[in-house]
């Protein structure tokens, strides 16, 4: 009987925690509507916080990348530190899911994940399918190429094979450029390291990659250089949510605090000014 009782308690406790999760909008877990914001209050069932699933594409140092230096494979970076700050501030447990950049918005739309942080830019076409927080970082696009290849401005890409990440604003930028620049051929690839590899082995002539990411790859690959280019659309990063999500307001308040408290500046120093 005692056993029965504790089983019952257990069942009740997990039922409770499921209710709490449902109430806090982990659409990723419930497969349902995640309109409600994470409450941040501890549940009766053991003080568990609601869980929110964040999707990222961890091929983008210093924003998000796999760090194996400690012996185990961990996803770290600027976005991950910010996500942890937001989780603490808003009051949820953070789970990070890695996927191809091109799969992030579909995962959001089908509510398999609650939000996306992936150095993602709120460009107009994306606003049709997702809502975005305020921007937390600005960026510029660059041409990455072999050292000395003299590809410093967009016109130099005439007749060149240019690598970009599939589904990125850089791909959009290259498509825009190709309308006016003769013979610019686009090669879209899933992951940034694949693009860098193509470049190093001369299968493409250049890549369009954003400045801070280009900086890292050119520092660790001495045969490569980058040149900042003028761009038609602004770059930069914000958090993406399913359309209509009430979490946007909560996240914006926490992002404001991140900025006002000086914590964002600290993280910018930590990840971008090494
Ligand atoms: N800022 C660009 C965009 O929104 C590229 C982001 C790529 N991010 C990544 N984690 N690979 O399209």
TrEMBL record:
<feature type="domain" description="Solute-binding protein family 3/N-terminal">
    <location>
        <begin position="51"/>
        <end position="274"/>
    </location>
</feature>
<protein>
    <submittedName>
        <fullName>ABC transporter substrate-binding protein</fullName>
    </submittedName>
</protein>
<dbReference type="InterPro" id="IPR018313">
    <property type="entry name" value="SBP_3_CS"/>
</dbReference>
<feature type="domain" description="Ionotropic glutamate receptor C-terminal">
    <location>
        <begin position="52"/>
        <end position="274"/>
    </location>
</feature>
<keyword id="KW-0732">Signal</keyword>
<feature type="compositionally biased region" description="Low complexity">
    <location>
        <begin position="37"/>
        <end position="48"/>
    </location>
</feature>
<dbReference type="GO" id="GO:0030313">
    <property type="term" value="C:cell envelope"/>
</dbReference>
<dbReference type="GO" id="GO:0015276">
    <property type="term" value="F:ligand-gated monoatomic ion channel activity"/>
</dbReference>
<dbReference type="InterPro" id="IPR001638">
    <property type="entry name" value="Solute-binding_3/MltF_N"/>
</dbReference>
<feature type="signal peptide">
    <location>
        <begin position="1"/>
        <end position="22"/>
    </location>
</feature>
<feature type="region of interest" description="Disordered">
    <location>
        <begin position="29"/>
        <end position="48"/>
    </location>
</feature>
<dbReference type="InterPro" id="IPR001320">
    <property type="entry name" value="Iontro_rcpt_C"/>
</dbReference>
<comment type="similarity">
    <text>Belongs to the bacterial solute-binding protein 3 family.</text>
</comment>
<dbReference type="Pfam" id="PF00497">
    <property type="entry name" value="SBP_bac_3"/>
</dbReference>
<dbReference type="GO" id="GO:0016020">
    <property type="term" value="C:membrane"/>
</dbReference>
